[in-house]
Amino acid sequence: MPDKPEKKTLKRRNALGKGLGALLGDSNKAESTSSSTSEKETEAVSVNIVEKLDEIAVEHIDRNPFQPRLEFQDEALRELADSIRVQGIIQPITVRKLTENQYQIISGERRWRASKMAGLEKIPAYVRGANDTQMLEMALIENIQREDLNPIEVAISYQRLIAECDLKQEELGDRVGKKRSTVANYLRLLKLPPEIQSGLRKGTISMGHARALVNVNSIEVQLALFDMIVKNELSVRKTENLVRDVIQGKDLVNNKTAQKNQPLDFEFSRLQRDLSTHFGTQIKIKNSSEGKGEIKIPYQSVEDLNRILDILKTH
């Protein structure tokens, strides 16, 4: 007699190691054959997740308290809302049921927000069972694997998974499909001062710049180098060379790159940071040896510009 097919089982750790698709049973393949559906249901049960597709009133859905994404761009949401008005919801969101008429988002908060903006009353959603720990893991891993979080949001997500799910860096690396060294590099970013973290969030500097700056022990020197990078649009390689010179104790005044790219002096650097904090955007001050200069106040959208103008009007 031929051997019976071996029954597939799925350990929870392996599911997470394969990514959110394995953990959720891959909701993107909802139209698979009945045999593959049965297999996914077996996997879902093994991680204590039950799935069904339903139409749920938008007003009965709450945002995910474990959402790692800290910023939702208004323009991108409007574009998605316009698409939803024309095409509808192509990919359902995923929620868990709290009470009879109350649900909480596991993944798909952008689609939910855009649907509300588009005026939809109901939205298609996969309803799954999940406890708080599973919610946290699924929300963080789903966002990390979309690769559109900024480095600080990724770092915070890693930190939360380690702290709240009691994981070691090696275990976290397995679950998100990253090397331990990669996880460690992201976590080190959280040691940078808020001004530099803000620059990393907004894309003022890159992950490469930040990885170089984190090797400098002095916060004042980190901030001075950060100002130099932004003012002179230094490449990652030039930044690494400057950081290496600082670590080796070389005088930046005698450094050829530094001669061409002197940072603002302490008073101007402090003023630049204070203004950036006050206006909620990365202010740039350029100052010449003659005492002339300019202040640049960037804005991300018309709404952001109006916000800045309101601040100016109150002073």
Automatic annotation (TrEMBL):
Single GO biological process annotation from the record: chromosome segregation
GO molecular function: DNA binding
Domain of life: Bacteria
Stretch list, region Disordered: 1-43
CDD domains the UniProt entry points to: SPO0J_N
Compositionally biased region (Low complexity): 21-37
Keywords: Chromosome partition, DNA-binding
Presence of the UniProt keyword Ribonucleoprotein in the record: no
SMART domains per the UniProt record, alphabetical: ParB
GO cellular component: chromosome
Gene3D superfamilies the record matches: 1.10.10.2830, 3.90.1530.30
ParB-like N-terminal domain segment(s): 54-144
PANTHER family: CHROMOSOME-PARTITIONING PROTEIN PARB-RELATED
Family to which the UniProt record says this protein belongs: Belongs to the ParB family.
UniProt protein name: ParB/RepB/Spo0J family partition protein
Organism annotation: Flammeovirga agarivorans
Lineage, highest ranks first: Bacteria, Pseudomonadati, Bacteroidota, Cytophagia, Cytophagales
